[in-house]
Amino acid sequence: MNELIKQLVEQAVRQQLIEPEDTVYAQNRLLALLGEAAYNDPGMVESRSIPDILDAMIERMVASGQLAARLDEKERLAAELMDVFVDRPSQITSTFRRLYGESPQQATDYFYQLSQANNYIQTKRIAKNIQYQAETVYGTIDITINLSKPEKDPREIAAAQTEVVESTYPTCLLCVENVGYAGRVNHPARANHRIIPISLQDEPWALQYSPYVYYNEHSIILSQEHRDMVINRQAFARLLGFVAQFPHYFAGSNADLPIVGGSILTHDHYQGGRYEFAMDRAKTLSQFVLPDHPDVTGETLHWPLTVVRLSSIDSAALLDAADDVYQTWLTYEDTEHEILAATNGIRHNTVTPIARMRGERFELDLVLRNNRTSTDHPDGIFHTHADIHHIKRENIGLIEVMGLAVLPARLLSELEQVEQFVAGTDISMAPSHQEWATELKAAYSGQDVTEYVRQAVAAKFVRGLEDCGVFKQTPDGQAGLDRFLETVSRQVAGDRR
Length: 497
Fold this sequence. Notes:
Residues 244-437 form the Galactose-1-phosphate uridyl transferase C-terminal domain. By secondary structure, this protein is an alpha+beta fold.
């Protein structure tokens, strides 16, 4: 264990988590956490990554009987060990703000590197994800088969049933009380977690990174107040305010309704990061003018979902225009395209908004969403339809909207079976894939089978995105979108009168 302790401390110095003068202190804190009586310098040690060292320490603790072989216990110890090397929140915030004074990018570079080095961002697990790009009619999209989040340990599930945990603290996974929290059987360890306080529209918000990043610098922007997500004018203003503060990042929000929203609707939050998505590169399909907003440029996009893109050098003018589009959409109905604004007083219309800077111009995409269901489509008329569910059934949230498919881990083994079937091996596979695999096999012409199936997965995902578009990429669908935009102009003009 002394050798592992030295490896971890030396790596912490290399990663600039601590200074060389902190070595003895760090060694002693690790001794206490690992139940070791004394430290004896083992001399020269090999250099290993921090996640690998932590895994070795934890497995040694399990083998000796000092630690239960449960995922939650292992993660708790790993977070506590790394907390030895992480500055207090006030010190990190002070460093971030000092660097922000030099440039916003320097500040986020520092915080992102810190969040990786201290093992809060699970770099070793993320590396397990299958990631590739595929060419589609809408451009190059990203595909990820998500293998990074560990499956529940059966022992952890059993413990959760027998251990009485009445605590509601922290209130949820996004609340600021998670900073430094030890964790428990039904709540992840956060001892090494830090946030950066920021202000949006004179409200206290915070910036952190996702522990399982799906793209470069995948950020979470969260309200310091625990409250439900809401999409409204204030949300648009916060997104524009964020990209004004961090112009090298985008910021977007999941929609605020079930089916078309994200997985956490009970805490007001957005996502951001430093990444160009396929939707960012989407071609302009048409341009339009909102007469009451001469300083704002409007575009529709060649994209499977319905996107209204607004841009202006004036963020206040852009905010006014976006609110007019949104307010019109809230009550807009088009029965020809199965769009109803509400049923029995339950709202269906909302948007997925995304803000970014392009040079000096602010840009805000409003992706029109509707969460109606029907007998034919009980999971959602504008959700992936049943023939897509063998690939993707989960909600189509912000990340998928922009063209990054986050697909379930089950597909790793299932697609290997599909590949073997397509290539001619007599093999049984998941029944849900049988019809699709048979179609692929009939069209297969001997090319690399893995690449062939991967491209087919991308095509399926894009088809699912097309299901989510309220106005389809057809002449009829575009005519419907044009009528909506005309309604925006008429309604705004009527309001002005």
